[in-house]
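Field log, afternoon session.

UNIT: design team B
ACTIVITY: writing a sequence onto a fixed backbone
BACKBONE:
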């Protein structure tokens, strides 16, 4: 068996992927605001959105309350 080769992303591709993940987080934030039935969410914007990996580490975040964003990775790991 051959050892797996390590592939590296060039800086341009990494930046495009990073920006795409951040845009997805922003779209999640807006979609939740527009479709929510809760006034806490659609008027006060008291929530946050983000994308985590399979271990619960935060990869990208949308807009939201800072304290929620700070604890999102811990909540995702706990749920997993």
């Amino acid at each position: 068996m051959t050892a797996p080769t390590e592939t590296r992303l060039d800086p341009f591709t990494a930046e495009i992927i990073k920006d795409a993940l951040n845009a997805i987080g922003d779209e999640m934030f807006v979609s939740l605001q527009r479709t929510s039935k809760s006034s806490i969410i659609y008027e006060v914007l008291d929530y946050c959105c983000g994308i985590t990996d399979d271990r619960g580490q935060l990869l990208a975040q949308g807009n939201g309350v800072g304290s929620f964003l700070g604890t999102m990775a811990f909540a995702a790991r706990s749920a997993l």
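LOG NOTE: The two ends are 33 Å apart (CA to CA).
NEXT ACTIVITY: expression trials, pending approval
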